[in-house]
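Methods — Computational structure assignment.
A single polypeptide chain was analysed. Its primary sequence is given first, followed by the predicted tertiary structure written as structure tokens.
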Amino acid sequence: MRMEKIVLEKVCWKVKATTAFQFLQLYYSLIQENLPIERRNSLNFERLEAQLKACHCRIIFSKAKPSVLALSIIALEIQAQKCVELTEGIECLQTHSKINGRDLTFWQELVSKCLTEYSSNKCSKPNVQKLKWIVSGRTARQLKHSYYRITHLPTIPEMVP
């Protein structure tokens, strides 16, 4: 592992972790390939992406493996759309991704609960009191003075050809 890291550093190759969004894109494209042409519009990627964003607003989902979270979201959407023909595709993705059935069920339940709460009236209007910054008088005085210390940069004239 150490030698691999050294070689990767020498060739300037930066290894980045795969995100749930990347898994969502991959799983979505694989499922779309298996759908008949007339059913390809049944799954909406923007909707799946919005669901993933809603889940990322909860700290609990930071503990989920990205592949499990992405597959949970897609599986729930397929259940909601009643696309029975895609159940086998989900099982295939689960097998190839080496995702435990209990893990998938656990995260599906959490995702379902999160999305239910997210779409409820409770989430539609934020509490205004919680959105206000409350600072001490001392901090407010320091902030006020630091505002006047900001140097304003001169405007750069545009060159007209």
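Note: DSSP finds nine helices and no strands in the chain.
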